[in-house]
Design brief:
The protein is mainly beta. The chain has one domain. 0% of the residues lie in helices and 61% in strands. It contains no helices and eight strands.
Length: 94
């Protein structure tokens, strides 16, 4: 059975630090398989496209395009089980 699993963390607003966010994930054969939506400052962003995914020791990274057209890099720390926003790129506007 396929479902959504929500992981919730408190937002941190420390200048210069990565922003913690709340992320809802598609959970198929494993938990937190890929993000389906995320929340920054109580604003919801729906993931329209998974543009890239890579791994480092203890973390998974997801480059996603949200419904606003912008690209976000979401990092999941697997050991501590929390998410951060590690990157942002605004969509090109004509």
């Amino acid at each position: 059975m396929v479902g959504l699993e929500v992981r919730s963390v408190d937002q941190v607003s420390t200048e210069g630090a990565m922003s913690e966010i709340r992320v809802s994930c598609y959970a198929g054969y494993r938990a937190d398989e890929r993000p389906s939506r995320f929340y920054i400052r109580d604003r919801e962003y729906e993931v329209q496209e998974l543009d890239g995914q890579w791994y480092s020791h203890g973390a998974s990274y997801f480059r996603v395009r949200a419904q606003d057209g912008n690209y976000y890099v979401l990092r999941h720390d697997e050991g501590q089980d929390y998410w951060t926003l590690d990157g942002f790129r605004a969509a090109l506007r004509d």
